[in-house]
Structure formats: structure tokens, C-alpha cells
């Protein structure tokens, strides 16, 4: 999730896209990824190289790529939508790509980046999510059995405050800085004119580039990424709610998706003409007279289009009251016996 | 003998009757066909426009019968049409603006942002519910925020947007039209669009569609059109047509590096290697029409497979055709890089002016009132023609219809038909449709004044100082042709000539869009509540606090302290000495 808007927050979009890219490379398909970007940097008019988002200066690595699927764009990235995705309370007409269809066997990775403070994360400069709300959302997910294990990574200033309040089991959290510290950005690019990435995510990306779907690296190595000498802030982590030992947790448990493949030695013959598979169309009835195209600008028909007759509504209370008042005043003034003269 | 003859006659009759009339062959596989085409047209300003059209046509009726086997027609769209009772669907996502004045009439224009208009079948009972579901499903397919389409930006036009496909009657209550001018178009919208093509982006003309080049352009528009068409010349059965079009205009300065010579490699950084194997026709057309009836200015290489003349938009045009399916094309080299070179430098005074073009702007000053002005130009020397103007204005710009003025050549021009639907706050936008006669060689100015509303503080978007967009207005007109068009066989003519069904050759139908407007609403300063709280609390603390202190503070005499241990010892010694204590 990237929560920042405006061109100078280019680095937050680059952070999110680089994690997205690593996760796709390690095997998780787009149908299992919900990507939320609060602003569009790639086709922003200020981007000198449209349709690209770079993470390294000298424009080495385009993390936007050619095959990106953004599920929540621009104004759709709000606290409400984020919490609805997590808890599953989504309006019924939401398409599948925008839902988190997880069950109690799913491992979920949540990566958030943006501007934050002690106990909150700012969404699009107009609202914020607090650590208490986030902890409650995770508890709802736990009670509805929407996850098996959850890894929460946050890259903002004072990021460790966001995981202080978690109380649901099976959650492991990483943050880029402790309470009271700011997370810093890595390097600006003079061609694009803004900072391209944040330090913590830059080193995490470097670490992830060496992981492949079969690697056995575990979480302890991820905790060592970006020591204070490189990151200037102190990354933190929290594993007390997690039931397994981080030593035994593989990186690919969360970042990759390893599918079980069974290899068989027997051959299957695919019959070319399988009966019953032909498309059985019901017998069509042809029209008796030829169908026509509509006229695009039927001037005569338009001019003579009668306006729709407004339905007659009985007069409302005000009109009735007004008329009753007028009639009462009239008869009070002139007396009821004059009525026959009036009519 | 007689009985045998009767039986023989019966058998002969049965054999001769063949399939019963009125019934199509059941069980025969329905044919579907793909045609792809690319049109390169150099524009008068030195830019070049490339229009891709991919047409999948399926001879089946999606509405009836449970269709389960999809071959070329994408399943996502086929199921959408069947499930929601859609008769026609037109969705366009556009970035940029087509400058009609300088580039000429567009083959198919779309307004900036996202535009969706749909005709539903008469069998649909709740059109609004189907419309809402449709926009949500499309937002998932195309990764666009089409779920923001709701009653505040949907209108029901009564005269524009007549169906482009076969139609049995045009009850406009089955039509819905919405525009989202703020919508951004980027690679995430192009990728699902490409995935709907039968060959994807792996073969045929779609290999040229690379995002880094397509979005580095002045105008990029991708659209999906689904409509029912005649299956054959007799038009007794219908087929469904899916047309995917992509128009991109490469800028002379940024992509062309200041040179007017273009080539496929320069535009797309790729060349064509083969046609899509699933396509029945795959062609590249280059517009080599001479301008101003002089000798050819444009040279194409390699030499085209044929030259085709057609009457497009009322004018006779010549096209060089490269047929990717003809074996002779790839004889000399494995890839096709069409190059366009100008034989002599083009004079800028030769720029032809299109017959109909328009512009729109906001007038006025301040944040209270303003004025929307639309200028429509008819540059035809002697023919007048009518145009329908459709304007959709969001509810927070309150239009005053009594200030609507239409002035042509200094005199007031009364429209033949006006349909105005006022807005309702937070539920419906303004809709203004007018049929105006444009006299020959004239400029028509339409102005209407509005007042800006103050929104509730939660209704402002996160970046309210950017401004609020007003969608483009739509001009639909039947423009008189220079050359009369003959009725051509739809299947043989190029795709770019056949989207708008033409009824008579003396004029052609064109739909133009004006610029979208960006209007500032009075925006509160959102940091003010915090500032006010700080200031008020400081003032209260300082003033009231001091006052309270002055009024309630009491004064006591303080006992001098007894002193520390050393002092007490010293006092004890001094007492013994008889000296006064410290």
C-alpha cells in the first residue's frame, strides 16, 4: 500500500512497486496481490520518462514494468477501503481483483509506506490510520480466520509505533525506524528531480533480489537488513506474537508462492474431437425483415420529440394548507350566507 | 406404379427443399473472425497519428443461449454482455486532447479521462442497477476507477448517442452516459486491454504496443466498442462485433526530434515481423493523400503491396496498403519498417481547416461566479448543417439557464430543440442538450453563467487546490461531404471507415469533444482548525489565566526558615554566649 499523494512522494510509489515486483518475481500471481497506489507517478505530467518508475539513480531499474495491475488507484486509497479489504466487508459488487480472498491457510504479507508519526500513518494528506485501528483490524481478521500467518512491514518515520499495539497471534512485524526516529530517503535523481527510494526499502530490495523461489533464507536474515550504519535509523521488529521461531521461517513463506508440482511419467492423449464439447447453439430464428441501423442524427425526430408528460401528483401539504387558509379567510370576511351568490 | 412415382416425387421434393427457410443451421460451429489494421496518417503540424483497430466479429447471438465456448471473442466481455443485458458498450480511456483545429477531423475521438456509454436491452428492468454493476465489473477488468461512476456523473441524453449498432427502437431511457475527466490512463489500463486481443501482444500488429512509447505522446486513447451488426448483406441475422481501437499521436518535437520523417521504429521502437496467425486480415494503411490537389508530397518505403482509394469523412483519400498476410511482403527482409519521408518541405500556410471544430473555456474571475463559453466554428463556404451540443456540468457549478445565450454572426440563434435537466445537489448533474443550426462560414458562441458552490468539508478530495474538472461537451453533427460516398460493402472496406453507419452519402457523421475545464471551487484552508485551536488555547491561557491569578491569589507572610543544622548549632552556642541569634 502506498499512501502518499503528490509528485515529491515519488519514492513511496517506487518503494511499493519494488516490493510488488519482487513478490511477483518470486511467484505470487496478480490475482493474489492487492496493490494500492495513492497517486500516479508513471504517467504524471512531471515525469520526464512516462510509463516508468525508477528505483536507482541513472535509471537502471524500471520497477513499473509492462505488466502491472493496480487494484486501488488515486482517490480510492482511503483508510476505509484499506480496512474493508483487510476485514472483507466489501460492497457486493466489488470485482474479485479488489478483494482479499484469503482463508485460514493463507500467509499474508502487508507492506505499507508513506508519511507517519508516533502511532499513526497518514493517508493522502487528508486522513490517518492509528495503530489501535490497525491492531483491531488484524484482530477481526484473526477472529474471522482470514489468515494463517501475517507479516507486516512498514517503512515510514517512527514506524515501530505502528506495531506496538498488535495483540492477535501469528503476526510478525518489521519497521524501518524506532519511535522518535525518522526514516530517510536514499538518493535523488537529478534527471527526475526527486528522491527515488527510501533507504530501508532500498536495502530490502537489494536483499530480495538475491532470493529465488527455492532459497532457504530465513527471517533472521531479513531482520539484519539495513543496520544503522547504512540506514541511519534503527530498524525494528516484533516476533513475540509469532508462534514459530523466526529462524525456521523461510522468506519465501511470505514473499513467494511455491506451488506443488507433481511430475507424472504416463502420457495422456488429448482427443481432438471430443463429443459433447461442440457449442450447441439453440436454433436461431432469423428475422422476417432486415434489421436496420439507427440513424445517428435524426433531426426531424428530435425536434418533434414531445417532452415527457410530467406525472400528476396530488397537491402537497403546503399547497392544501394555503388554500384552506385562503378559503377560511374569505368566508370569515364575507360570511357563509354569501356563498350562494359567489357560486 | 403411381404410388412409387408419388414416393419418388416426395423424395425429390424433400431433397430439393433443403433446410427449412427461417431456420439457420443448428450445431454448425459459429464463425468468428479477426481483422487487424493500423492506419498511419501524418498530420499537418508534422506530428503523426497512428490508429490501431482490432475487430473480432462473432456470428452468434450472445443474448440467447448459454454460450460456453469462446475462441476469439474474450470471455470476460462476452459474459458481461450476456449477464447484464447490454446492447451496446463503448468505453474509452484517453490521455491528452485531440486538437481538431490543427490536426483535422479525428477518425474517432474520445474525451479526456474515461467515458462510458451503454445501451441496454429492452428486457432489462432496472437499468440503474445494471449500470452500477457494469461500471464496477469494468473497473476490475481495466484497472480504472470506473466504480466512481454513480448518479452524480451519469446522464441520460435524449438526442445524442444514438446506437451505433443494429437497433429496434431508440427509447433513450435505456441509455446511460458518464464521463470521469480526472481519470488517469497508464500502463495498468493498457495491459488488460492488450490481454483481450486474441494474439495478445505477441504477434501481429499488437507487438508495436509498448507502453514507454505509447504514453510519451500528445494524445493516447484506447477504446472498446461492442455492438451488434448485420451478419451479411441481407441483414436477417446479427453478429456481435468487438472493436478495440487505440489512437496515439506522436509529437513532432519530443518523439520526432524536430524532423518530419517518421518510421515505425522511430514511433514504436519496434518493427513488424508477421501477422497474427488468428487474423483473417492484417493490413497497414498509410495516408498518402495529396493535399491541395498537388503532386505527392509523401514518399513511403518499402513499396506498398497495393494502393487503395477511399472516400473517408467525405473526402477522397489515397492509402498505401501493406498486407501482412501477402507472402511477397517479407521476401526481402524479415521485418517491416514502414518509413515516411517528405519529398519537399511542407508549407505551413497550406494547413487545411476542418469544416467543424470547437473550443470551450471558462470566463470570469474570482471564486463566486464564472461563465462557460463554447465557440463552434463552421468553416464550410456555403453549406449550413445542424449540430447537437451535449453538456454535462457537475452539480456544484450551479448553472443559471436564464443567462444562456447563443449568438451567431452578431444575432441570436434560437435552437430547434432544447432539453435541460437541472441538477440536484449531490445526486444529479446538469444536462443541457441543444440542436443548433450552424450557418455557413460562421462562429457560434454559446455562453452560460454559473455560481460555485461551497462543498461540505468532508466532500473535498485530498488535493482540492488542484481544481475540479468539468467533462468535455460533445458535438454530434452531420457534416456535408466534399465528395459523395457510395454505399460500400462493410466487409471489404477498411475498418477505419466503418464505425459510424452512414445512411446517405452526402454527409458524414462526426462526433467531436471540446476541452475539459478545470475550475477552482472556494476551498477552505484545512489546516485552520488546528491553528485556531492552538491560537485560542494560547490566548485563553495567557489572558484568562493571568486574570484568574490576579483575582484569586492570596498573600501570606512567610515564616523565615529555621536554617540548617549548622545554623542551629551556631544559634545554640550564641544563646549560651548571650548574643542575639542569627
Automatic annotation (TrEMBL), chain A:
The gene is Pigk. Coiled coil: none annotated. The active site is at residues 115, 157. This is GPI-anchor transamidase. The chain crosses the membrane at residues 312-331. Pfam families: Peptidase_C13. GO terms for molecular function: GPI-anchor transamidase activity. Heteropentamer. Part of the GPI-anchor transamidase complex, consisting of PIGK, PIGT, PIGS, PIGU and GAA1. Interacts with GPAA1. Interacts with PIGT; this interaction, via a disulfide link, stabilizes the expression of GAA1 and PIGK and links them to PIGS. One of its GO terms (biological process) is attachment of GPI anchor to protein. Pathway: Glycolipid biosynthesis; glycosylphosphatidylinositol-anchor biosynthesis. Keywords: GPI-anchor biosynthesis, Membrane, Signal, Transmembrane, Transmembrane helix.
UniProtKB/TrEMBL annotation, chain B:
GO terms for cellular component: GPI-anchor transamidase complex. Keywords: Signal. InterPro entries: PIG-T. GO terms for biological process: attachment of GPI anchor to protein. Residues 1-24 form the signal peptide. This is PIGT transamidase. It comes from Calcarius ornatus. The gene is Pigt.
Amino acid at each position: 500500500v502506498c499512501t502518499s499523494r503528490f509528485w515529491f512522494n515519488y519514492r513511496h510509489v517506487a518503494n511499493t512497486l519494488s516490493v510488488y515486483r519482487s513478490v511477483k518475481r518470486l511467484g505470487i500471481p496478480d490475482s493474489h496481490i492487492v496493490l494500492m497506489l495513492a497517486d500516479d507517478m508513471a504517467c504524471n505530467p512531471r515525469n520526464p520518462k512516462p510509463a516508468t518508475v525508477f528505483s536507482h539513480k541513472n535509471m537502471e531499474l524500471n520497477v513499473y514494468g509492462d505488466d502491472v495491475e493496480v487494484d486501488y488507484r488515486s482517490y480510492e486509497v482511503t483508510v476505509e477501503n484499506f480496512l474493508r479489504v483487510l476485514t472483507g466487508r466489501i460492497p457486493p459488487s466489488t470485482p474479485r481483483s479488489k478483494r482479499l480472498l484469503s482463508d485460514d491457510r493463507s500467509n499474508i504479507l502487508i507492506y505499507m509506506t508513506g508519511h507517519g508519526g508516533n502511532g499513526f500513518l497518514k493517508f493522502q494528506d487528508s486522513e490517518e490510520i492509528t495503530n489501535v485501528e490497525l491492531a483491531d483490524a488484524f484482530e477481526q481478521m484473526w477472529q474471522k480466520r482470514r489468515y494463517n500467518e501475517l507479516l507486516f512491514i512498514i517503512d515510514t518515520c517512527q514506524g515501530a509505533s505502528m506495531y506496538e499495539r498488535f495483540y492477535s497471534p501469528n503476526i510478525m512485524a518489521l519497521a524501518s525506524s524506532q519511535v522518535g526516529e525518522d526514516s530517510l530517503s536514499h538518493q535523488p535523481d537529478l534527471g527526475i528531480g526527486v528522491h527515488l527510494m527510501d533507504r530501508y526499502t532500498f536495502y530490502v530490495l537489494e536483499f530480495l533480489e538475491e532470493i529465488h523461489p527455492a532459497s532457504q533464507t530465513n527471517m533472521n536474515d531479513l531482520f539484519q537488513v539495513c543496520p544503522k550504519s547504512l540506514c541511519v535509523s534503527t530498524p525494528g521488529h516484533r516476533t513475540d506474537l509469532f508462534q514459530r521461531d523466526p529462524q525456521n521461517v523461510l522468506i519465501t513463506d511470505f514473499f513467494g508462492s511455491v506451488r506443488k508440482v507433481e511430475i507424472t511419467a504416463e502420457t495422456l492423449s488429448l482427443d481432438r474431437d471430443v463429443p459433447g464439447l461442440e457449442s450447441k447453439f439453440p436454433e436461431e430464428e432469423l428475422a422476417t425483415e432486415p434489421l436496420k441501423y439507427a440513424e445517428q442524427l435524426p433531426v426531424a425526430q428530435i425536434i418533434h420529440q414531445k417532452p415527457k408528460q410530467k406525472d400528476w401528483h396530488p397537491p402537497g401539504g403546503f399547497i392544501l394548507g394555503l388554500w384552506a387558509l385562503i378559503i377560511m379567510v374569505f368566508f370569515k370576511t364575507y360570511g357563509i350566507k354569501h356563498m350562494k351568490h359567489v357560486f | 406404379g403411381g404410388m412409387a412415382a408419388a414416393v419418388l416425387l416426395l423424395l425429390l421434393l424433400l431433397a430439393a427443399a433443403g433446410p427449412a427457410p427461417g431456420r439457420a443451421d443448428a450445431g454448425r460451429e459459429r464463425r468468428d473472425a479477426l481483422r487487424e489494421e493500423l492506419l498511419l496518417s501524418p498530420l499537418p503540424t508534422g506530428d503523426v497519428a497512428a490508429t490501431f483497430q482490432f475487430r473480432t466479429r462473432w456470428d452468434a447471438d450472445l443474448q440467447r443461449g448459454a454460450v460456453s465456448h469462446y475462441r476469439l471473442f474474450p470471455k470476460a466481455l462476452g459474459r458481461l454482455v450476456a449477464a447484464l443485458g447490454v446492447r451496446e458498450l463503448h468505453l474509452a480511456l484517453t490521455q491528452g486532447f485531440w486538437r481538431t483545429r490543427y490536426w483535422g477531423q479525428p477518425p474517432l475521438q474520445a474525451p479526456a479521462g474515461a467515458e462510458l456509454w451503454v445501451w441496454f436491452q429492452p428486457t432489462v428492468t432496472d437499468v440503474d442497477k445494471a449500470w452500477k454493476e457494469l461500471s464496477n465489473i469494468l473497473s476490475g477488468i481495466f484497472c480504472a476507477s470506473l466504480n466512481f461512476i454513480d448518479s452524480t456523473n451519469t446522464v441520460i441524453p435524449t438526442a445524442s448517442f444514438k446506437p451505433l449498432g443494429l437497433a429496434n427502437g431508440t427509447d433513450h431511457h435505456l441509455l446511460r452516459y458518464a464521463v470521469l475527466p480526472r481519470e488517469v490512463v497508464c500502463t495498468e489500463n493498457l495491459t488488460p486491454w492488450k490481454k483481450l486481443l486474441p494474439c495478445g501482444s505477441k504477434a501481429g500488429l499488437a507487438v508495436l504496443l509498448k507502453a514507454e512509447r505509447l504514453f510519451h505522446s500528445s494524445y493516447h486513447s484506447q477504446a472498446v466498442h461492442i455492438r451488434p451488426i448485420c451478419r451479411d448483406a441481407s441483414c436477417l441475422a446479427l453478429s456481435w462485433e468487438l472493436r478495440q481501437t487505440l489512437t496515439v499521436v506522436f509529437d513532432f518535437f519530443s518523439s520526432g526530434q524536430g524532423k518530419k520523417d517518421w518510421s515505425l521504429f522511430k514511433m514504436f521502437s519496434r518493427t513488424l515481423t508477421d501477422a497474427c496467425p488468428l487474423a483473417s486480415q492484417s493490413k497497414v494503411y498509410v495516408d498518402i493523400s495529396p493535399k491541395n490537389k498537388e503532386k505527392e508530397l509523401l514518399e513511403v518505403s518499402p513499396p506498398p503491396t497495393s494502393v487503395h482509394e477511399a472516400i473517408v469523412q467525405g473526402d477522397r483519400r489515397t492509402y498505401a496498403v501493406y498486407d501482412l498476410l501477402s507472402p511477397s511482403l517479407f521476401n526481402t527482409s524479415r521485418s517491416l519498417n514502414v518509413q515516411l519521408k517528405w519529398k519537399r518541405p511542407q508549407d505551413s500556410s497550406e494547413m487545411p481547416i476542418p469544416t467543424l471544430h470547437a473550443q470551450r473555456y471558462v470566463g470570469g474571475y474570482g471564486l463566486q461566479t464564472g461563465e462557460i463559453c463554447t465557440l463552434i466554428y463552421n468553416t464550410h463556404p456555403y453549406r449550413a448543417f445542424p449540430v447537437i451540443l451535449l453538456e454535462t456540468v457537475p452539480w456544484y457549478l450551479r448553472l443559471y439557464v436564464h443567462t444562456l445565450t447563443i449568438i451567431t454572426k452578431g444575432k441570436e440563434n434560437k435552437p430547434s430543440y432544447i432539453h435541460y435537466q437541472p441538477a440536484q445537489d449531490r445526486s444529479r448533474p446538469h444536462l443541457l442538450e441543444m440542436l443548433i443550426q450552424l450557418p455557413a462560414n460562421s462562429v457560434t458562441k454559446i455562453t452560460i453563467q454559473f455560481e460555485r458552490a461551497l462543498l461540505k468539508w468532508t466532500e473535498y478530495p485530498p488535493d482540492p487546490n488542484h481544481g475540479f474538472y468539468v467533462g468535455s461537451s460533445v458535438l454530434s453533427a452531420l457534416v456535408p461531404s466534399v465528395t459523395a460516398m457510395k454505399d460500400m460493402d462493410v466487409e471489404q472496406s477498411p475498418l477505419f471507415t466503418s464505425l459510424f453507419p452512414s445512411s446517405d452519402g452526402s454527409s458524414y457523421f462526426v462526433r467531436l469533444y471540446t476541452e475539459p475545464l478545470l475550475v477552482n471551487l472556494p476551498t477552505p484552508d484545512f489546516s485552520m482548525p488546528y491553528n485556531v485551536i492552538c491560537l485560542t488555547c494560547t490566548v485563553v491561557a495567557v489572558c484568562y489565566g493571568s486574570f484568574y491569578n490576579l483575582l484569586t491569589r492570596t498573600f501570606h507572610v512567610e515564616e523565615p526558615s529555621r536554617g540548617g543544622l549548622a545554623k542551629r548549632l551556631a544559634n545554640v552556642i550564641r544563646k549560651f554566649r548571650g548574643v542575639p541569634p542569627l
